[in-house]
């Protein structure tokens, strides 16, 4: 594993390379700050609008959580770079994908409880093709320069809480 960069605003998320061409985010949190729901939701979802979790490990009293890397940053970063009001089409796309992610959580009977601009992430899948050089070493190359869809990823699932079944009160008639 190679740490490539520090990417978390609060100092606990790192961009890493596991040696398999794809980059991941490694989130480090203290045991008292860990919420099992974050791992459960991120690892069990098929929803493309929820940040995926690939594994977790405990080391030296801390949880290490391996997550997909949202390679375009957060809504917070986007608003800092482009402070003008986004075009209607862009705002509509962001809200629609965000609502899809929230709906996915609700279908699993969870509420987020902490949605903020730092938890709305942007990601563009990098199309890569593997080629071998003369020595048989595999290397990745970008395929073309075509437009790829940007996905909104909902993160910050440590705030998620399971919703219980509604309480039904029987009244006497």
TrEMBL record:
For this protein, the record's SUPFAM superfamilies field holds: Protein kinase-like (PK-like) (SSF56112)
Q: Name one Pfam family in it.
A: PK_Tyr_Ser-Thr
Superkingdom classification of source: Eukaryota
> InterPro entries recorded for this chain?
Kinase-like_dom_sf (IPR011009), Prot_kinase_dom (IPR000719), Ser-Thr/Tyr_kinase_cat_dom (IPR001245)
Q: Name one GO molecular function term.
A: protein kinase activity
Q: Which residues form the Protein kinase domain?
A: 1-173
Q: What is this protein called?
A: Protein kinase domain-containing protein
Q: Which organism is it from?
A: Streblomastix strix
């Amino acid at each position: 594993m190679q740490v490539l960069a520090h990417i978390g605003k609060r100092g606990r998320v790192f961009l890493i390379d596991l040696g398999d061409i794809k980059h991941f985010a490694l989130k480090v949190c203290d045991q008292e700050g860990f919420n099992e729901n974050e791992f459960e939701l991120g690892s069990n979802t098929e929803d493309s609008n929820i940040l995926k979790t690939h594994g977790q490990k405990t080391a030296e009293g801390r949880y290490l959580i391996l997550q997909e890397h949202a390679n375009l940053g957060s809504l917070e970063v986007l608003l800092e770079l482009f402070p003008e009001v986004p075009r209607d089409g862009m705002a509509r796309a962001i809200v629609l994908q965000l609502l899809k992610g929230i709906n996915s959580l609700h279908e699993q009977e969870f509420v987020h409880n902490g949605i903020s601009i730092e938890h709305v992430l942007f990601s563009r899948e990098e199309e890569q093709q593997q080629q071998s050089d003369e020595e048989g070493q595999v290397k990745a190359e970008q395929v073309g320069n075509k437009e790829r869809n940007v996905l909104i990823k909902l993160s910050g699932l440590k705030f998620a809480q399971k919703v219980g079944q509604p309480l039904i009160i029987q009244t006497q008639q």
